[in-house]
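INTERNAL AUDIT FORM
Audit reference: QA-55
Scope: verify that the stored structure record matches its stored sequence.
Auditor: D.O.
Record contents follow.
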Amino acid sequence: MRRALTILLVLLALAGVGLYGGYRWALQQYGRPGPLAQETRVVIRPGSGLESIARELEAAGVIANADYFRIAAKATDQARHLQAGEYAFPAGISLKGTLDLLESGKTVVHRLTIPEGLTSEEIVALLSQAEGLTGEIETVPPEGSLLPETYHYHWGDSRESLIERMRAGFDKELEALWPQRAEGLPFKTPEEAVVLASIVEKETGVAGERPLVASVFINRLEKGMPLQSDPTVVYALTDGKGPLGRALTRADWQVDSPYNTYRNKGLPPGPIANPGRASLAAVLNPATSRYLYFVADGSGGHAFAASLAEHNRNVAKWRRIKRQTAQ
């Protein structure tokens, strides 16, 4: 109430009106709906003074009069407590509501989703385009060190701070999952698990298939068979900088690279992407199977086989589906 009376006296002096009429007029100016026709976002930059904030809000149409805003802010003692940031002002917000919002510091929360299976180069590219983040990422993080997830941030947060959150999240997930791994896996370190998880991540987008796909590669590793994973060849050709943009050819399978799992047995020297938690869990606790092969089944998933003969039949079926789809 004291705030309202103070505003009343100041606005009365400014308006030069009679006491009763001025009282009603002042309260109307403070609490009446403002001119804003629709929700509008305004960024109040750090270090902005009351004058610049008032001009910014007036230019954006949030308030009708910058002078009234300054007077009300000083009269209510809110001028010293207005906080920087990006604010979403609702349509028709009053002078009082505007001051209260700026005092509260309730800024806009942005969301950035990092899909599973992106390379570090691709994640850096997403961050570079993200609205409201500041600074540059000087060094691309190592492959397989960033956790795919939805991240919340505020205007003015740095890109490097999000990278650090992704690193910390990945380390936390791996530290939690590694002690729960199955016995007898054909790899010895968490780093090797990440390499295999990145391959599983790139091979299937079907969540329920991940443990089964992992079992195929586990079985191959145990038998000393090459993994023969197409995504590793794509990584060898692109160096993780983005999609290949075309289908693989038989000639691609011969590319001379340690990442080419058609020419080299065992795991490649490093991850080929940033796997999510589900793929990490899948390679640490794979399904039990005798499968050694899989191929697309035309429905978004894969057909699995324990023998080459069965696999060849699945491949022939997949080729028929592709031909029919192309017609």
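Auditor finding: record pair retrieved intact. The radius of gyration is 30 Å.
Action required: none
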